[in-house]
């Protein structure tokens, strides 16, 4: 029974398209995140939500919009995809912002 | 964003050797976590250190938090191929920020 699951695992799309990545956690955690891991393996936080409310929005283009329909779900929608958006995107959750984060398996996004 | 520099960036060693990975910052952290990430997977927490000078052991892995809570180290004794992976430190300054990562390969 996967704790943090995200779909799809792989996503290949053309420049200019709009795509969404879904994330669900069954741990009962209050906080969820989206991270971007680039080709150099640097893991950078994009967004942090606490009880469906946006807490952190790091410097991310407006083309990226997170949506949290409920505490267990945090989806990421990306408009007008660019080549530079190619990366692995990780969803994670934690009980609070200062405790252990549990990560999904990642979504490898390739923009061609 | 708090910058945590990890060194070395890449490390390739023979099975049985010892190694140390460093995580350094100019910022003070309330606590610091170490994660390991295997290919195709998300990071998994290894340990959290909270007190300056704290040392924690996890089998062959020894973690130390600097006295000033600005840096940390991870020492692996007698490395095994199963230790291969990306090691990430993450510092808590109200929110956890990840380090630049150390990619370890242990050759059988």
Describe, in plain words, how this protein is organized in 3D.
- The complex is a heterodimer of chains A (112) and B (108).
- Chain A is mainly β and 112 residues long.
- Chain A has strands at residues 4-7, 10-13, 19-25, 31-37, 43-50, 53-57, 64-70, 73-78, 87-94, 102-103, 107-111.
- In chain A, a hairpin with a 2-residue loop joins strand 7 (64-70) and strand 8.
- By secondary structure, chain B is mainly β.
- In chain B, strands 2, 4, 5, 9, 10 and 11 form a six-stranded mixed β-sheet that branches. In chain B, strands 1-3-8-7-6 form a five-stranded antiparallel β-sheet, with no helix packed on it.
- Chain A binds chain B through residues 4, 35, 40-45, 48, 56, 58, 90, 92, 97-98, 100-106, and chain B through 1, 30-31, 33, 37, 40-45, 48, 86, 88, 90, 92, 94-98, 100-101, 103.
């Amino acid at each position: 029974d996967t704790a943090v699951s995200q779909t799809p695992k792989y996503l290949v799309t053309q420049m200019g398209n709009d795509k969404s990545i879904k994330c669900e956690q069954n741990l009962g955690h209050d906080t969820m995140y989206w991270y971007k891991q680039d080709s150099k393996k640097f893991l950078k936080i994009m967004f942090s939500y606490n009880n469906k409310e946006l807490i952190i929005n790091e410097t991310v283009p407006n083309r990226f919009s997170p949506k949290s329909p409920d505490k267990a779900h945090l989806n990421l929608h990306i408009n007008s995809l660019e080549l530079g958006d190619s990366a692995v995107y990780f969803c994670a959750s934690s009980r609070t912002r200062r405790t252990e984060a549990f990560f999904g398996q990642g979504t490898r996004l390739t923009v061609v | 964003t708090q910058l945590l520099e990890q060194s070395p960036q890449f490390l390739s060693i023979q099975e049985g050797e010892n190694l140390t990975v460093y995580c350094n910052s100019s910022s003070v952290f309330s606590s610091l976590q170490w994660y390991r990430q295997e290919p195709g997977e998300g990071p998994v927490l290894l340990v959290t250190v909270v007190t300056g000078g704290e040392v924690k052991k996890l089998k062959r892995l020894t973690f130390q938090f600097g006295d000033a809570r600005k840096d940390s180290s991870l020492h692996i004794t007698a490395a095994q191929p199963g230790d291969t992976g990306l090691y990430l430190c993450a510092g808590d300054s109200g929110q956890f920020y990840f380090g630049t990562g150390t990619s370890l390969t242990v050759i059988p």
